[in-house]
Amino acid sequence: MLKIVNLKKWFGENKRMLVIDGISFEVKEKEFVAILGPSGCGKTTLLRIIAGLDTDYEGEVMLRGKRVEGPGQDRVMVFQEFALFPWRTVLGNVMFGLEVKGIPMEERVRKAKKVLKLVNLEGFEDYYPHKLSGGMKQRVALARALVCDPEILLMDEPLSALDAQTRNFMQEELVRVWEETGRTIIYVTHNIEEAVYLANRIIVLTSRPAKIRAIFDVDIPRPRNRFAPEFVQLRAKIYELMHAERRTKRDL
Questions:
Q1: Most CB atoms closer than 10 Å: which of 24, 120, 140, 175?
Q2: For the segment 123-158, what is each residue's pLDDT rounded down to a tens digit?
Q3: Consecutive H or E run containing 135
Q4: What integer pLDDT is reported at residue 250 of this predicted model?
Q5: Does the predicted model carry a pTM greater than 0.90?
Q6: CB neighbours of 106 closer than 8 A, spacing ≥ 6?
Q7: How many domains does the chain divide into?
Q8: In which order are the strands placed within the sheet that holds 75-78?
Q9: Percent of the chain at pLDDT above 90?
Q10: Which own/partner pairs from 92-97 qualify as long-range (CB within 8 Å, at least 24 positions apart)?
């Protein structure tokens, strides 16, 4: 479905800083892929390139055989910040993308309410963002992305601002929504446990400039138990891999 070929990205004047160095991978339809790596390694930049928000790079990003040359309705990004409009209700926020597309009001309301039910926000249509908890705000952001019916959801550390208990609950909700909708999800995180809990496949990046250090297939049955031996073993294996690189970088 999505193919990344020898992707390279520079920042700065005269392209002095190499951020992404020759990354290649593929994503299958309906797959949940986690991009895992240390802070500042280029994960968000990679996601922005896939979204079409950054087109100044070398290599290829292909979606269903066609080169990605800019943003499109087939890809929607969910950011770490909720980015909700404070002057709009929950329903108004979710309907925004449909409004921009010129969808008639009656259909906008119907689709938005259907998605709000999916993310367990039925009954909160008339609430304003300042009355919502962090987890509820993120569910509104997720609903706003889903209502546009994208092929791929690109999620940039969307749960990192939440407390641990809310974050675990939202991970469970996200898996449920993914299973019910069949969307393809590419999820950026620096949290190893989160990646193991959510993903079918984990792509581990090195420190900047980002290269692919390892790819793990996660065959642990769902619903996943964070304390099951296979879960703990995989988490420890990835941790040791990333920690070994940090030691190497420090020694250099």
A1: 140
A2: 999 999 999 998 999 899 999 999 988 999 999 998
A3: helix 134-146
A4: 55
A5: yes
A6: none
A7: 2
A8: 75-78, 152-156, 184-189, 32-36, 201-205, 212-217
A9: 75
A10: 93/129, 93/140, 93/144, 94/140, 94/143, 94/144, 94/147, 95/147, 96/144, 97/144, 97/147, 97/148
